Design the sequence.
C-alpha cells in the first residue's frame, strides 16, 4: 500500500474504506494505535455499514516536522438515510516509520512527540485561519451539510389532544 507521504496514506485510507477492505484500513494504523486488533475488522466495518460510499474530497493541509505530520481533510460520503452526498472535515495524526507513514493516536507517543503534534496542530489552525480559500472550503462544507439535512423529508407529527 502506498504510504510514502501523508497525502498517499490519506488517499489510501479512503480507498480501502470505499472498497470495504477493512483489514487494509487497519493496516494503515501504527500497531500501537490500531482502533481494534486486525482480527476484528468486521467490528470495525460496522462503523461504515450505513454508508453507501466514502471518498476523499480534498486535503486542506498537511503540516510535517521530522517523523510526524498533522493533516486536515474533507471527505465525502453517502448515507443510506440521507439521499444527498454529505461532507465532513476530519484530522489525522501521522508518524513516519520504516515501512512508511501510519495513522497514530497521540496518547501512544512520548510527551516530546505529543508536543510536536500540538505544534503542528497550531500551525495548521493558523494556516487555515489565514487562508481565505481554506475558510471558503470550510464554509462550503457547512453549507452542503445544511442542504443535505434540509433535503430530508419532514416527519409527520400527529398532535393528540388529551381531554381533562
Sequence:
Amino acid at each position: 500500500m502506498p504510504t510514502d507521504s501523508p497525502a498517499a496514506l490519506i488517499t489510501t485510507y479512503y480507498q480501502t474504506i470505499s472498497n470495504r477492505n477493512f483489514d487494509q484500513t487497519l493496516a494503515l494504523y501504527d500497531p500501537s494505535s490500531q482502533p481494534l486488533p486486525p482480527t476484528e475488522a468486521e467490528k470495525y466495518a460496522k462503523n461504515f455499514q450505513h454508508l453507501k460510499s466514502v471518498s476523499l474530497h480534498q486535503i486542506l493541509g498537511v503540516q510535517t516536522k521530522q517523523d510526524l505530520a498533522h493533516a486536515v481533510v474533507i471527505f465525502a460520503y453517502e448515507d443510506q438515510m440521507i439521499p444527498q452526498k454529505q461532507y465532513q472535515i476530519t484530522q489525522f495524526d501521522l508518524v513516519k516509520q520504516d515501512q512508511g507513514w501510519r495513522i497514530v493516536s497521540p496518547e501512544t507517543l512520548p510527551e516530546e512527540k505529543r508536543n510536536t503534534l500540538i505544534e503542528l496542530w497550531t500551525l495548521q489552525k493558523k494556516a487555515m485561519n489565514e487562508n481565505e480559500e481554506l475558510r471558503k472550503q470550510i464554509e462550503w462544507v457547512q453549507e452542503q451539510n445544511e442542504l443535505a439535512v434540509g433535503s430530508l423529508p419532514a416527519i409527520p407529527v400527529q398532535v393528540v389532544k388529551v381531554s381533562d
